[in-house]
Amino acid sequence: MDDIFRKIDEHSKKHHVSPWNGTFRDYLPMVIEHPGLAQLAHARIYDMVRSCGVEVDEQGNERFNFFARELFGIDDALAKVVEYLKAAAMGSDVGKRILMLYGPPSSGKSQLVILLKRGLEEYTHTEEGAVYAIADCPQDENPLHLIPHALRQDFLNDYGIYIEGELCPMCSLNLRQKYDNDIYRVPVKRIFFSEKERVGIGTFVPSDPKSQDISELVGSIDLATVGEYGSESDPRAYRFDGELNIANRGMIEFIEMLKADERFLYILLTLTQEKNIKTGRFSLIYADEFVIAHTNEAEFKEFLADKKSEALQDRMIMVQMPYNLKASAEVKIYEKLLRRANIGTIHIAPHALEVAAMFAVLSRLEEPKMAGLTLVKKMRLYDGQEVEGFRQKDVKLIKAQTEREGMDGISPRFVINRISSSLIRPNSKCINPIDILRAIKDGFDTHGTFKREDRERFDNLIADVRREYDEIARNDVQKAFFVSFEQEALTLLDNYLDNVEAYLDDKKIIDPLTEEEREPDEKLMRSIEEKVKVPESGKNAFRNEIFRKVAMSQRRGERFDYTTHDKLKEAIEKQLFEERRDTIKLTVSTRNPDQDQLRKINEVVDTLVRKETYCVECANELLKYVSSLLAREK
Ligand SMILES: Nc1ncnc2c1ncn2[C@@H]1O[C@H](COP(=O)(O)OP(=O)(O)O)[C@@H](O)[C@H]1O
Ligand SMILES: [Mg+2]
Is the CB of 357 under 6 A from ligand 1? Predict the structure, then answer.
């Protein structure tokens, strides 16, 4: 409880930044002391993104915490967006272009823009992100525009603050009439961006191209007041309330930009190129805003092919937003979307989202061109896992061999829809990986947009994922059984270590029962090592490493804890599983288990529930599933 109160307090503290009202005379010393206040739009947004922290990985790629809570696995695309902002912030011509995101549906384009918008709203509530504006300007104009041109070079030399742009017609008129040309008297206030209140953040959605009015972008003449001021070119008779007007100092999102009529696009062109809006009967009005647009790929291609659009194309920086290609990141996407979907008390079994994610990622991957690399291996490699015969370093080359990877395939939304539809089935308290794969498969038919060859390809991928899952399922059961076999495991471990010691010291082993001497049991050692793919050529290194760890524990007077060595633990588990397979098979597949078998089964279910995130229902399903697998193997 306290926690939420504390959080609310913190939030209010941050958001109740005291409003500030003053005059340009008061503002001037402030901006000189904090030149950050004079920042232009791109620079402010760039700083905002960086202010949350940046992590650099081993390959030197930057990851921005700003995006990390909502967007997963698309760091490359995000880095390009930030690169654009950086260049624009530094004043390069890049800032005079529209940032255009294009990609397949549901690849996170809107989400990215939402993050920027919400982030910017928050940021203007902070000290570093504060924005001040001429108080009675309908476009929240930068107060520094009051500094006469003749003084601007000096201002730059003396304070390092660059001023760009002219007073808007409204402010010019006010300066003359209301403030007697005394710039000191012009009122200034602190503003807080808010999309809802139409401050600093605009959004344009194209509707019917023929009927949509340009005033949505640039405002309009207020016919009711024209009479009062006598002229259409009196700024007081104009409503500067178009999306471009209100987005001044901040950003404007252009949704499905290429669906908009050309007239709108050309206004945008002028805005980005000249930083001007053509409004009413006024000369061009300066505006400073970050324009971010998005579109789907089909429209984008059409646009590129259209000769008429060349001027516009030149004025855009295109950033491709492909689907995420990392299975573990894909799971995070589903978790995020399901958290919002309010799925109630339905349990999602372990690995259920994982299999869906594997399928989705596989559907997006291009067939590998490298010898020995299968699609599944490629998926694992992309996800940062170890894959025999390949290294993480190879990923770059593998990616270079693709054409448009990530631009096709199954969208996260499709998967979520399928998961939701299996959730609403009556009587389901828990959905497991097999349910989900089935639901996805059913979706191919009900979803009209898939071509037949796609459907075939997807069916095959489902089969691939199923095989992966079989392995995972066995592993879980194996691990759980293992808990009941703890003592046996320790015995097996001791046996292995004795053999390894004798092998390394080139000694014989003494049988504890018969006290007879015999050679170390190479077959046993190799059998265990092969379980974790230690090659013959690497066995000495492996044994030495294990033994160093054992010796270290002994020096500290402790017993070697094999569970801290993941590989050895896995190897011992697998070996034991193999040795006990028949027992396990018998236990789980018997229709009428005896007392002892029943006890074992219950123990295993109990372990799955306690140690993993299984519920009783899916734990039992898992056992059934694995026993059918074992039965098939005979
Ligand atoms: N890489 C990703 N990371 C996190 N969420 C994602 C990702 N890609 C898509 N999503 C989620 O999927 C949903 C659809 O994405 P959206 O941004 O609306 O797609 P678009 O605008 O590209 O069609 C959103 O809820 C979004 O958060
Ligand atoms: Mg969208």
Answer: no
Distance 411 CA to ligand 1 centre (A): 9
- What is the three-class DSSP state of 194? strand
CA gap 154, 32 in Å, rounded:
13
Print burial letters for 435-453: b (CB count within 10 Å at least 16), e (below 16): bbbebbbebbeeeeebeee
Query: Residues 481-500: what's their mean pLDDT?
Result: 83
Residue 23 φ then ψ, to 5°: -120, 175
Helices 566-589 and 595-611 cross at an angle (nearest 10°) of 140
Buried b (16+ CB within 10 A) or exposed e, 483-519: ebbeeebeebbebbbebbbbbeeeeebeeeeeeeeee
Task: Give, using CA atoms, the residue closest to atom 17 of ligand 1.
Answer: 108
603-622 as b/e, with b when 16 or more CB fall inside 10 Å? ebbbbbeeebebbebbbbbb
Instruction: Quote the CA–CA distance of 14 and 275 in Å, as a whole number.
Output: 32
Which of 71, 111, 112, 415 to probe ligand 1 with, by most ligand atoms within 8 A of CB? 111
Residue 458 has pLDDT above 90, yes or no: yes
Q: 416 CB under 6 A from ligand 1?
A: no
Torsion of CA 295, 298, 300, 303, to 10 degrees: -130
Neighbours of ion ligand 2 (CB under 5 A): 110
List, as one string, the DSSP characters of 424-478.
Answer: TSTT-SEE-HHHHHHHHHHHHHH-TT--HHHHHHHHHHHHHHHHHHHHHHHHHHH
Q: What is the pTM of this model?
A: 0.85
In terms of Cα–Cα distance, which of 248, 440, 246 is closest to 355?
A: 440
Model pLDDT, residue 589:
66
Q: Across all residues in the chain, what is the average pLDDT?
A: 90
Write down the pLDDT at residue 337. Answer: 93
Residue type for 106, please? S
Residue among 75, 101, 106, 420 to mutate when testing ligand 1 (max atoms within 8 A of CB): 106
Which ligand does the CA of 75 lie closest to?
A: 1
Closest CA to 285 of 88, 147, 145, 133: 145
Helix (H, G, I), strand (E, B) or coil at 244: helix
Residue 488: which pLDDT band, with cuts at 50, 70 and 90? confident
CB of 105 closer than 6 angstroms to any ligand 1 atom: yes
SS3 content of the chain, % helix, strand, coil (to 5): 60, 10, 30
Other CB atoms within a 10 A radius of the CB of residue 359 amount to 27
Identify which ligand lies nearest to the alpha carbon of 413.
1
Strand segments, DSSP code E, in 165-248 are 187-191, 201-204, 220-221, 238-239
Q: How far is the CA of 105 from the centre of ligand 1 (A)?
A: 8
What percentage of the chain exceeds 70 in pLDDT?
97
